[in-house]
Design a protein that fits this description.
about 525 residues; 5-stranded parallel beta sheet; binds xanthosine-5'-monophosphate
Length: about 525
Amino acid sequence: MDSIAILDFGAQYSQLIARRVREAHVYCELFPWDADPAKVLALKPKAFILSGGPNSVYEPGAPTLPAYVINSGLPVLAICYGMQLLAHNLGGHVAGSNKREYGRAEIQSANEGSLISPGSRSSFQVWMSHGDKVDRLPPGFTATATSVNCPIAAMEDPARKLFALQFHPEVNHTEYGREIIGNFIAQAGVKAEWIPGSMAEEAMAKIRAQVGKDKVLAAVSGGVDSTVAAALVHRAVGDQLTCFYIDTGLMRQNESDQVISTFRENLHATLHPVNAVEDFIEALAGVTEPEHKRKIIGEKFIRIFEREAQRLGHDAKFLVQGTIYPDVVESSGVGREKAAKIKTHHNVGGLPDDLHFSLVEPLRYLFKDEVRAVGSEIGLPGEMVWRQPFPGPGLAIRCLGEVTWERLEKLRAADIIFTNELRAAGMLKNEIAKHPVGTAQAFAVLLPVKSVGVMGDGRTYEETIVLRAVTTDDFMTADWARLPYDLLARVSSRIVNEVKGVNRVTYDVSSKPPATIEWE
Ligand code: XMP
């Protein structure tokens, strides 16, 4: 089966490139730019894609183009920083600049037959994010697109099958992005024959080979990833698997009970619920810094898990983790020290060094919707497979400031009002999906900001609820949902009237980027 190797130069969007390639039915893997060449070539790629990255080719210590890429004679698609590297290495010139062009741009292309072959269109919108740009073509290349700020917005040397784009074809904001990636696959002669349908069977075979007759433990949270991972392991090795559900007290209204009953009804695996609410609330007392909260929760979680496993006298060798591909890439790629600090997703990297288990990670190479497809394939119901994402550290990160039981209850009460009203209006995308502004993720956030209000004859001085609702396909970029005013009015009035200690409700109208979906 043909495959493509993607070299990651530290771009925010590298994993989206992998995703688009897989959507085009080509198997691909993402490697750090400085990965051992033998490891990359072991994939026997039929083409390379070079990602973007935050550096300038002139910076000391900036990532360089590994020699084997050009020496292989294989087709290359170079994006953004990748394009600059290609130009820099092949005799073109890159103009340094400390001014960034960031956002939408219109490009013109008149080169029929090029990768960005215009067809009936001669100009279209793309997403740019760069400082430097190529200002002299390397020998053999022609410019295939221009924009006002970027006279060489794309270039190619069709004889050597080297293609380069200054813009990002992988993000949704680029019109025809998928088509451009598809054109590269076709022009590179890569056969698109990867079918992700047999993922469940493949994963179960791997689990059986890894685990043998040993015992396996899993901590399930109700989230899609941990549920599908546990279900796969259960299908693969049956009662060798024991699951725990640790109630951290950081879940939404009635969520713990629902998670436990849905799991029992659908999985038939052994599940031990553990009430650890007090442990978590105590450990979080006085803590306001979000990274600190995440660390405490991650650490506490694994210690309680170990304690419970020991209490049951379990001699398991293996631990199931619902790690998915974006988690892996987010916490291991190049130049990601900074990106990883943006949010320590506690699914990966949060495990202590002295953990005595080997990890079973059946979803490690899958994207979210592939995980959902596997879940459906093995017969999990829609309510499990289509659940909205919920952060590992739970409401602790939506409860800004100190996490106390009283504040959590306030947040839960507001959140359930918002969810129920959205559900009644048919706007929870994954439940009904009929309304044009179905929200992909919607929740309440509690701010430790008090302001003055009036209620009846009295003056109030209470905290603030933020409503957050977004539309998105991939959760990497998102827009705020254009919820109807009358729905917002109803939610706001219900929250202020029904939730004690809240006198003001606001609606978040920020897109991602530059904001994130979660507040924390
Ligand atoms: P942001 O806030 O970065 O979130 O735009 C993107 C998506 O990731 C979810 N999220 C998390 N998921 N553990 C998770 O499993 C976490 O720590 C975490 N933090 C954010 C978030 O809900 C959104 O869907």
